[in-house]
Amino acid sequence: MVRLTVDLIAKSRNHFKKKRGLSFPEYLKTLTHLHFFSKSIEDIGDLSMCRNLTVLYLYDNQITKICNLGFASNLTHLYMQNNDLTRIDNLSNLQKLSKLYLGGNRIAVVEGLETLCELKELHLENQRLSPGEKLLLDPTTLLALAETLCVLNINNNNIDDIRDLKVLRELQHFSAADNRLHNMKELEDVFSHWPQLLQMDLSENPVCKKTKYRDRVITAVKSLAVLDGREINELTRQFIINWKASKEAKKKNNKHLMTVPLTYDFNVGQAPHPGHICSRANVQGLKPQQSLSAQTLKIPMSGLVNHVAVSSPICSHGDA
After folding, report:
1. pTM here?
2. CA 73 to CA 111: how far, in whole Å?
3. Digit-coded pLDDT (tens) for 13-67
4. What is the rounded CA–CA span in Å between residue 168 and residue 283?
5. What is the C-alpha to C-alpha distance for residues 95 and 92, in angstroms, rounded to an integer?
6. What φ, ψ does residue 4 adopt, rounded to 5°?
7. Cα-flanking dihedrals φ and ψ of residue 216, to 5°?
8. Is residue 42 within 8 Å of residue 61, measured between CB atoms?
């Protein structure tokens, strides 16, 4: 087993460059960046002498558990993508952590980040999950990150619902490509909670095949500058927004016209007009005090209309 320890650091020419008058323990205290990627490392040993460590590169190894990093209170960047991690734990002391890279592991539930009050970037793409399994994000963790998280990458994780992510109101970059997102209305609701979003990638999701998908996203996120790798032209954005507003206004106007009440005096055979209340409704087969509801009656109206749909009571015997 290859274990990351201070002895391994001492054997690495890339790290221990002995300077005149500087001992190895003193060198470890001054160390800020540690590069041990692609070294077949399986475990993290005691690195507590590296108290000023700020950036740790451990990607492309075989690490199965995050451990022995409690000393690293100054750590701001942690690169552990493409390992064999199944859980996110033992990070509670890393309260200055700003960027966390955990893509390409075997993590099924994103949790244990509640104390990372300065985390701005979280990368979780391409988890190697079991067939049918999808990446889950714990609501408690999401709420804890709501005020700080600006970048979230959850590409290729079988995700079909992101409604819990609406609390991340500081998001500026969001990547959820190659998932199973399909409900456009749900997505529009989530996007309405992200007023600062600048870049988003939803490519290779079923929702991308929906009619007017791109137009609907652009109108839902007015701050968006790049969608699925394509820049959004400001003139195009304004045209789409104006077109939508015009369509909604027209739809509202048509709905108003359709709700204008039309009544008909069945005794005198007068044509219907708005606001006219008939005096009697003695239609053949209808009792004097029985109202008409949800029936379609053929009524001659001098060529004006041939059918009138009556959806509410027209009159009853004795109406004034």
Report:
1. 0.76
2. 20
3. 665 555 556 788 888 999 999 999 999 999 999 999 999 999 999 999 999 999 9
4. 62
5. 7
6. -80, 115
7. -70, -35
8. yes
